[in-house]
Design goal:
alpha/beta
Length: 202
């Protein structure tokens, strides 16, 4: 689905006729960043921004060279254009993207886009770094620095880790035959009476 990478891969081994490629793989339609608004049954408008791009030096799809960067256009402005949910393949740099080797993976460009978005999205979902699975409530500092990072723009003292992959393993249950089965989800609540309520104004 990454058309430039697809064309490069097809051209690498030999010159193939486009007709044969389309016969085997179908027509190429570019997939990339997008934002879409959904009108919900209760009358609310939900705007979702999604991007498959991650930084890498590899040659697989939806990757960009870290030195060249990528423009994540999350800031939808105020009112009905504001982005509520961000869905990305990879994490923003410094947010739960620990690899098995302990390295912080992720995109600095994505972090900066989130930090500069006004209003900021209420939720971000991402995968890619499976061993770094976790969920966290982030509290942003009042002011955004010129070059935002997780060290300068997040108030880690006021942020809260909801769960991490080891919690899922530790809470594994037993199946009917006695084997341990991994927990498949984690329940959390952040209403006004809960220990860590959400504050939508911040």
């Amino acid at each position: 689905m990454d058309i430039p990478m697809f064309h490069k891969k097809v051209a690498d081994p030999q010159s193939l006729e486009r007709e044969l490629v389309e016969q085997a793989y179908g027509f190429d339609e570019r997939l990339g960043d997008w934002a879409h608004s959904f009108h919900l049954r209760n009358g609310a408008l939900l705007t979702v921004y999604a991007s498959p791009y991650t930084p890498s030096l590899g040659d697989w799809g939806f990757q960009y060279h870290p030195n060249k960067g990528h423009n994540f256009t999350i800031d939808g402005g105020s009112g009905n254009n504001a982005v509520d949910v961000v869905m990305t393949q990879g994490p923003p740099k410094g947010i739960m993207g620990y690899t098995q080797s302990g390295e912080r993976a992720g995109s600095s460009d994505l972090f900066r886009a989130l930090a500069h978005a006004r209003p900021r999205p209420r939720m971000q979902l991402f995968g890619h770094i499976y061993e770094g699975w976790s969920a966290k409530l982030i509290t942003w500092r009042d002011r955004t620095t010129p070059m935002p990072s997780h060290l300068t723009d997040i108030d880690n003292g006021q942020s809260f880790l909801i769960a991490k992959v080891s919690d899922m393993k530790d809470r594994a249950g037993q199946s009917l035959d006695g084997d341990r089965v991994p927990m498949k989800y984690f329940v959390t609540s952040h209403c006004s009476g809960d220990p860590n309520p959400l504050c939508w104004g911040s």
